[in-house]
Amino acid sequence: MEYFDVYDEHGNKLDKTAPRGSHLNKGEYFLIVHVWVSNGRGEYLIQRRAKPTDANPYLWATTTGGADVGESARAAARRETKEELGLTFDKDAFERLKIITSIRGRWQTICHVFHVHTDRNLEDIRVNPDEVLDVKYATLRDIKRMIKEKTFWDYPYLMNDPDYFRVLEKRSP
Q: How far apart are CA 44 and CA 42, in angstroms?
């Protein structure tokens, strides 16, 4: 059973942990990360999720996950990228784009959205089959189309942030 630290709405760690999937009290949040890995062609490395316990199992998504007990958001982004894709980056390679405090149904999260750049080929990706079924590169236009087709996680809806993609659009060539 995975346990996570619990935070207040300002991102301050409370003196409390809770197991993954548990219901939190009002004003309590889990820390999660989204990692957008881009290449020099303006594409993002996306993955088809393999975990039936995901919020939207078996759909395409970016690299995501929860921060373990005692782990910072940046450390969680680095760990999740290595765990899911087999890619290792220096901790300073992760650029924090935004922080979103969100309540959607029973999910109360503080999400740190990161960006990291690589020009690695798909053949260099070593996915964890327990987490990831497949990977590919896609443009933001492709990703938004996939959201409409309900084949990609709808981050603007899930994070309660209609401007979710704006920080990535500013980065695109």
A: 7
Per-residue confidence (pLDDT) for residue 173, from 0 to 100: 54
Tell me the Cα Rg of the chain.
Answer: 15
DSSP for 81-126, written as a single string: HHHHH-----GGG-EEEEEEEEEETTEEEEEEEEEEE----GGG--
Q: How far apart are CA 13 and CA 5, in angstroms?
A: 7
pLDDT in tens, 116-164: 999 999 998 999 999 999 999 999 999 999 999 999 999 999 999 999 9
Q: Which two tokens stand for residue 4?
A: 């996570």
Best CA proximity match to 14, nearest among 28, 3, 25: 28
CATH number of the domain located at residue range(s) 3-171 in this protein: 3.90.79.10
Asked whether residue 165 carries a pLDDT value surpassing 60, the answer given is yes
The span from the CA of 16 to the CA of 26, in Å, is: 14
